[in-house]
Each structure stands twice: as C-alpha cells, then as structure tokens.
Amino acid sequence: xxxxxxxxxxxxxxxxxxxxxxxxxxxxxxxxxxxxxxxxxxxxxxxxxxxxxxxxxxxxxxxxxxxxxxxxxxxxxxxxxxxxxxxxxxxxxxxxxxxxxxxxxxxxxxxxxxxxxxxxxxxxxxxxxxxxxxxxxxxxxxxxxxxxxxxxxxxxxxxxxxxxxxxxxxxxxxxxxxxxxxxxxxxxxxxxxxxxxxxxxxxxxxxxxxxxxxxxxxxxxxxxxxxxxxxxxxxxxxxxxxxxxxxxxxxxxxxxxxxxxxx
Length: 263
Fold this sequence. Notes:
mainly alpha; 3-stranded mixed β-sheet; 54% helix; globular
C-alpha cells in the first residue's frame, strides 16, 4: 500500500496499448469459461459473441466502431489471426460430418480428417508467408523451405498430433477397404522426413509451373506445345477449367518455388 501511495497504483494486468485487453479476455475465455447446451446453435452463437468481444480489442489499425466498412474489412483480412477464423475448415458443421476419401462420415474419423485438412490449410498459409516475407518471394528449393518451416515451434509441436490424426484416417481406410491384398497396415510417421513429404504434397496442390499465361484455354495451350501435357494437367487442376490464377506458388524450370503474388 505504501508503494501505491508513493508511486501510484500500477495495474498488474494492463500493459502497453490495448493488447492487454485482448490477451486478458482470451485467457479468461480459454481458461475460465465452461458450459454445455443441448442446442449446438446456441454454442455457436456463444462462440461468435466471444469472438466479436475479442475482435474489438485486436490491434487492427482502425477503430471498428468508426472506420468505413471497406477499411474495417481490409483490416480484418490483413490480420492472420482474425481471417483464419473465416476459413470454412475452421467452422464446425452442425451435422458433424466431414468428407473422408469419397465418403461423408461422422465420428472420430471425420474429426481426424477435419483436423488434418485444417492443418494443411494452415501449413500452406505459413509456407506462403515465409516465402513472401522471409525469402523475398523466392526462389527457394523445397529442402531449405522444409527446414525453415520446421524451425517454427508451432509446426514442430503440431506435427505429431497431425500424424496421429492421419494415422486414424489411414487405419479407417485400411480396415474398410474392399481388398487389402498386398497392402501394409498404416504406421505412425511423426518425424521430420514424414513432414517433408507432407509439405511437398501440400505445396504441389497449390503450385503451377511458371510461365503459363492465365485466361487462355487449355486446348490452345496444349496445341502450342510449349508445355508438356503433364504440366498443363497439373496447372488445370489448380486453376480450374477457365485458367484463373488462384495458386499460391509457381515452380521454375529448375524445380524451385516462387511466390505467385510476386509481380
């Protein structure tokens, strides 16, 4: 009390700026609130209300109550923590179903596949951020890219959990396959080598070969024979029938990767 009289009261929670509010609320929500409801919708509404309560205390660079709608949307879009919540893979479906292979499933295997899909999207976000911001847009080779991402403690810590979820899915597929002759039972692969293979597959799903112009029909490109049929097929799988650029990465002739947003 004497120190308070001499130096004035210093709130032990409050820090610089307004981030202390967001951090304090986030801690209370994560650690101090528990509840159930017979209606899933009620739980979702509660989650939305708590999220909105956090949103107003994020350092968005704009006042959410005074900023123009366009500026507010841009601020949310540019904040990775906020925009991540808007990804479909992070939104719980009330029917609790998720696609596993070519079947809609419910229960543990559906939860496992949903978790794997969420991690794949999140990993692609991290890979793109690193390429854009730490590697100046590239080019980078896959090995160095993998090592750099593995140094992120969040990725290193999450990977064993993801590997367990992948094992759950693969075991379910193995046990429910019509014919397993000659196939080996899936085993856990939670090391760096397995992560590298997973990253390679993730990046491949978001990459087209560099130099393929957009808005040109695939038939026309194939007729010019400037790219192999395999390159065109891969690019078409990412860009779609209309050849609209939506890839994260492009691959050079040397096999390295560059950020697709690089002008």
